[in-house]
Design brief:
By secondary structure, the chain is α+β, with helices and mostly antiparallel strands. The chain has 25 helices and 17 strands. It is globular, with a radius of gyration of 23 Å. It catalyses: L-aspartate + L-glutamine + ATP + H2O = L-asparagine + L-glutamate + AMP + diphosphate + H(+).
């Protein structure tokens, strides 16, 4: 796991090496173990390293292969790199390291951009062909690893984080009105390629972009599950359970590939508990597990230690219970905001940030349970989709998921920021209208798996763990698991109140008390119920001079929220004032 950056010139000028130097300190938390630089002709690459595979200097980046004429920076992990290395060795390639980075270089030389189809893992990389002066950018199937871009005439810059691009300079920091519409309507999700800033874009998941020296760019989308029954043979419920569990066993085993110990973030829910159970089943002993809890607020509990302790006892893990007091909480909120590449309203961010800080002092790689709710229909907005006609799917989804509809948004955004069209509904309509997705629920799950998941839970985990040099691996987002879940009949997923097929498959593996417990979330009551110093900080941000000059929100709506900070909730129960406050806190933090 690392931080990457670079510049590719299209105008004949040399890369701005000083700008890339300004990136490196911002990327340092993603790679605290070293840094590297490389420049040739119209391209330059920079890298911050976190040593996970091949701990020696032979695994350092940027990695250059003069014989093949290739240079590479890479963030992530290719879990099947050993198998690919054996295949490439048999084809005549020689290796000087034991790293997965070098496997990517050789794989690209042998198979071209199609090499990504052979990778099992999470990755974002930038590769330069020296002879042709061509840049290749790629991102993994589920967008687990990020890649941001800032383009100006004659130049393309890219980095693992948006703040790194801002540090390099010369970025248009005007707000993107369409992205603002998404943020306010589409549950704070801004789908790629947009970000909230007009001058920064992000490479979509499952995409390879090839850019030639004259600036011609070609995108190849190399993976997209269909969410249809045609993708799998007819099977009984029992057969589905067996196939899903077999795929998950493989997924957690793959994610143990490392030259350092691997632990688990254990919330006490089914998903993380199942990961622990499957690793124990495979012979892992002394597995390090970590849980976090907060002080209660407004009568709402701030921890789920009962369940995480139960799982830790059941599988005899080396368990660490982390308790966060009120004095530590407010500073942590601001630290979490500083770690965000984009504004992320979920209060889980603070929990993951604090958890990652503690975990990183003991271990550098963990597995985490993100993704199961999106691929196995675990959220409460999925059952209402079950009876919707396919033709009515868009409206049914918007009704249960959108924070605000377009007409209501006119009463919240200042007139100068309102669009004359419903950008979020248009985006969902296009996505739902693509081929595949047999039912309304299939369409919703495809939308959430390929868009919402990437730019909310997955991005949240990446940003918060990498702020502390901690690599998080997500076995539920193994692409073979996702493909299988996509083909699974919706009724099996909706059973038992959601995630039915996963719950059924977990019987006898995970304690029934964990399987049958009420659904929980990372509980952070102090954000759901704003008060005290944090409410003061939100109020100050929304009334500060930059916020007044920006003028995003209608004055009467803002006053209404500030007068009753916890009265207004979005469709999915988020604090409406926090959504506005978080955006301003983030914009002011990055200096916009």
């Amino acid at each position: 796991m690392c931080g990457i950056g670079g510049e590719f010139r299209l105008d004949g000028a040399p890369p701005d090496l000083a700008a890339l130097e300004r990136m490196l300190p911002v990327l340092s938390s993603r790679g605290p173990d070293g840094e590297g630089r490389w420049q040739h002709g119209n391209a330059a690459l920079v890298h911050r390293r976190l040593r996970i595979i091949d701990l020696s200097d032979t695994g350092a980046q940027p990695m250059v292969d003069p014989e093949l004429g290739l240079a590479l920076v890479f963030n992530g992990c290719v879990y099947n790199y050993r198998e690919l290395r054996d295949e490439l060795t048999a084809a005549g390639y020689t290796f000087r390291s034991t790293s997965d980075t070098e496997v990517i270089l050789k794989a690209y030389h042998r198979w071209g951009t199609a090499c990504v189809e052979r990778f099992y893992g999470m990755f974002a990389f930038a590769l330069v062909e020296l002879a042709t002066r061509t840049l290749v950018l790629a991102r993994d199937r589920l967008g687990i690893k990020p890649l941001y871009l800032a383009e100006t005439p004659g130049r393309i810059r890219f980095a693992s984080t948006l703040p790194a691009l801002l540090a390099a300079g010369d970025v248009d920091t005007d707000l993107d009105p369409v992205a603002l519409h998404h943020y306010m309507s589409f549950h704070s999700v801004v789908p790629p390629p947009r970000t909230i800033l007009a001058g920064v874009r992000k490479l979509p998941p499952a995409t390879v972009r090839t850019i030639t020296a004259d600036g011609r760019a070609t995108d190849t989308v190399y993976w997209r599950p269909e969410f249809t029954r045609a993708a799998a043979p007819a099977m009984s419920a029992q057969e589905w359970q067996e196939r899903i569990m077999a795929a998950l066993r493989t997924a957690v085993r793959r994610r143990m590939v490392a030259d350092v110990p691997v632990g688990v973030l254990l919330s006490g829910g089914l998903d993380s508990s199942l990961i622990v159970a499957l690793l124990a089943e495979q012979g892992q002993t002394g597995l390090a597990t970590f849980s976090i809890g907060f002080e209660a607020a407004a009568g709402e509990s701030g921890d789920e230690f009962h369940y995480s302790d139960l799982v830790a006892r059941e599988y005899d893990t080396d368990h660490h219970q982390i308790r966060i007091g009120a004095a530590r909480f407010v500073p942590a909120v601001h630290e979490a905001i500083a770690a965000m590449s984009e504004p992320m309203v979920s209060h889980d961010c603070v929990a993951f940030h604090l958890l990652s800080e503690e975990v990183s002092q003991r271990i550098t790689v963990v597995q985490s349970g993100q993704g199961a709710d999106e691929i196995f229909a675990g959220y409460d907005w999925y059952p209402p989709m079950a009876n919707a006609a396919r033709a009515d799917a868009v409206e049914a989804y918007a009704r249960v998921f959108f924070d605000r509809r377009h007409d209501a948004l006119a009463g919240h955004l200042a007139p100068e920021w309102m669009l004359d069209h419903d950008a979020s509904l248009e985006f969902v309509t296009d996505h739902f209208g693509a081929p595949g997705a047999d039912t309304a629920l299939d369409a919703a799950l495809r939308q959430d798996s390929l868009v919402m998941l990437v730019d909310d839970p997955v991005k949240r985990v990446d940003n918060m763990t990498m702020a502390w040099g901690l690599e998080a691996r997500v076995p539920f987002l193994d692409h073979e698991v996702v493909e299988l879940a996509a083909a699974c009949p919706p009724a099996l997923k909706l059973a038992q109140g959601g995630k039915g097929v996963l719950k059924a498959a977990s019987r006898g593996i995970v304690p029934d008390e964990v399987i049958d417990r009420p659904k929980g979330y990372f509980p952070v009551p102090a954000i759901r119920h704003l008060s005290g110093p944090l409410l003061d900080d939100v109020r100050d941000a929304l009334t500060a001079r930059p916020a007044r000059e920006r003028g995003l929100f209608r004055k009467d709506y803002l006053e209404e929220l500030l007068d009753a900070p916890n009265a207004r909730r979005t469709t999915l129960g988020s604090n409406a004032l926090w959504q506005l406050g978080l955006l301003e806190l983030w914009l002011q933090r990055i200096g916009v």
